[in-house]
Amino acid sequence: MTSPALARRNGRAPGMSTLALADGTVVAYRATGPVDAGTTVVLHHGWTQDHTTWDDVVPLLARTLRVVRYDARGHGRSDAGRSAATLDQLADDLADVIRVTAPTGRLVIAGHSLGGPVVLAFAARHPDLLARVDGLALVATSGAGIGRDILGLPGRVTGPVMHVAPYVLGPAGRLPLRRVTRFPGVLAPALRIGLFGPGAATATNRRRTAAQVGRSHPPTVAALAVELVGHDMAAEIRAVGSTPVAILGGTHDVLTPVAHSHALAAALPHATLTIYKGAGHMLPYERTSELVAEIEALARPAAAAV
After folding, report:
1. What's the first-to-final CA gap in the chain, in angstroms?
2. pLDDT, tens digit (0-9, with 9 covering 90-100), for 184-207
3. Please, is 181 exposed, middle or buried when counting C-beta atoms within 10 Å of its C-beta (0-12, 13-18, 19+)?
4. Is the dihedral of CA 179, 24, 133, 101 positive or negative?
5. CATH assignment of 17-305, given 3.30.365.10, 3.40.50.2000, 3.40.50.1820, 3.10.20.740?
6. What is the pTM of this model?
7. Which PANTHER family match (predicted)?
8. Angle, CA of 21, 46 and 55, to the nearest 5°
């Protein structure tokens, strides 16, 4: 069967496969690891990021597990689609990706940042697929109130900003731009602030993060920013039920500070909570081996049953 063609919003997608989502939007993905593995790990990246967020994680996971990672609509190499993106839509996209790339076998799903709410919405909207999931990893993310304590600022400062944010971001969603910038190098210096813990804002980490931001689609990320500012996943969290969950955060994360990880843990009392001292928001880069170990532990019950 011929793979669907990307619109090449960001040029070619070397080394990637493609699939069409339910509404016809074409996304790019990579599948790595043993094809006969009993468990597939599906990785969802964060806002303005893409599948390369997981570049350090995948080689370690793929030693024993099959790994699927993809660029969400409007991110990386994937097409943006015709309508504004929402968390529910991204959750349905995740279900589409799983049905195409991992139609059978057990699953572990990890969501970083934006990926956390997407995974929670997936759990609520697709109980048939959740039944195949042995574990969820919620990585440097939030279940509600994102932005209220961003950059460590007090609520009296962030509150008014978050209140007007939808009115500012809404018009940005109508900009006729295909990507943030063709020159991601201009973004790299600013990424020293906010994304990384002490010592982790290396030139390499800033450069590859900036490249991801540069590839993102302004209308898509503007629409999702509005969604994230107002999101409250209380109902979706309840839908997780008894599915094992690992919640991972960093003490120096100023985008989704550790209070958000603790709030998730309080709402999911059966979950494990791990906070990495000195780590920032980009845990896949900053705490690679530890993150791999957490995901492998979620997959272990299925592996033991084989």
Report:
1. 31
2. 988 998 888 779 999 999 999 999
3. middle
4. negative
5. 3.40.50.1820
6. 0.93
7. AB HYDROLASE-1 DOMAIN-CONTAINING PROTEIN, HYDROLASE, ALPHA/BETA FOLD FAMILY PROTEIN
8. 90
